[in-house]
Amino acid sequence: MIKDLRVYSVYNSKGKHAxxxxxxxxxxxxxxxxxxxxxxxxxEAKDIPMKNVIEIFPKVRGNIIGLDESDWITADExxxxxxxxxxxxxxxxxxxxxxxxxxxxxxxxxxxxxxRGAKTTYRFPFPLGNVIGGGEHGGKTAWQxxxxxxxxxxxxxxxxxxxxxxxxxxxxxxKKRKLLLGRNIENAWSSSLDDLKTLDFLSAIAEDFNVKLGxxxxxxxxxxGKTYVYKGLKKELTPEKQIDAVEHVANVYDLYFLEDxxxxxxxxxxxxxxxxxHGRLIVGDDLYCTNTERVARGILSKSTxxxxxxxxQFGTLFQVxxxxxxxxxxxxxxxxxxxxxETEDDWLSDLALAWGAPMIKIGNLGPDIPKHNRLxxxxxxxHEKQMASLP
Length: 391
Prior knowledge:
A hairpin with a 4-residue loop joins strand 10 and strand 11. 37% of the residues lie in helices and 21% in strands. By secondary structure, the protein is of the alpha/beta class. It has 2 domains: 4-114, Enolase-like, domain 1 (2-Layer Sandwich), CATH 3.30.390; 122-387, Enolase-like C-terminal domain (TIM Barrel), CATH 3.20.20.
């Protein structure tokens, strides 16, 4: 039984306030800290200021105290009843998800990867690492993240090692060539190279290490309503030209992972890219915001074959799990992802395993280190395991 529920204001990796939830049961204390994003999609669930959380917290607390922590699904349904709005504007997504996570941790004795019950074999996700950054995360490129995927790794230890090694080599080479500007908010390197020269630089290193390349374009951040504005390249592209340009770089640089290459309302443009680029992952993040209705629209229009899953974009664990089930029914690939304002909590790694996501998008340093270490720890704890199968 849940005996107590508390909330705390803590700090995330950007030095800003984040919410931590703690519950007490007969077996102990369980906590969950909730991250925040920088380039947020307009369709994400809402957060509210901490002072507002404090005001409504007594009512929320009264509905949670006394619940059976082993029945996390019922607890999630009660959270939905407390705030029946679709976007958690009344209690805030951080409080809703924080309570959901803390109760789920209690129900599994802090082993969230067991959330879906016993399996014959557990398949571990490959870490998708951000090595060079730009866009709203800081840097000279319009595109937000240049990513690597160690798809040949035999276990999480080797996968993390490859990501760190590539990250280090990239930094050393940029410094040697006097192109290094520093690190951005996700600990990816920032350089003075433009978008295409960054791809030229990184593709040679990726080939040496036999890793796949990906890009998070975050195209909504440089879409002005009519054209895509590339300040570094001193040009603007119409939606049609943007599709052509994305197709071109995908083929020239053998890109495997293409996230948000178009703005967040262009379902038809995404579908066109999905038709053109066979054998690649066309991934929606801002397009979907982990939202059931938007994912359903994307499924009907065949906009993408993959989607980013960020629980704090949408709702409780039970709500997010329903989104993932809908995706898997039609063969869409879920990619669980961190946020740019991360906390040291490692629950994302457990959920990637529980939800059967073949990839987990996390950084290489800072608050994402516990997430790498958590995957390594679970790998050692499980007997029947293997790395995930990539599409």
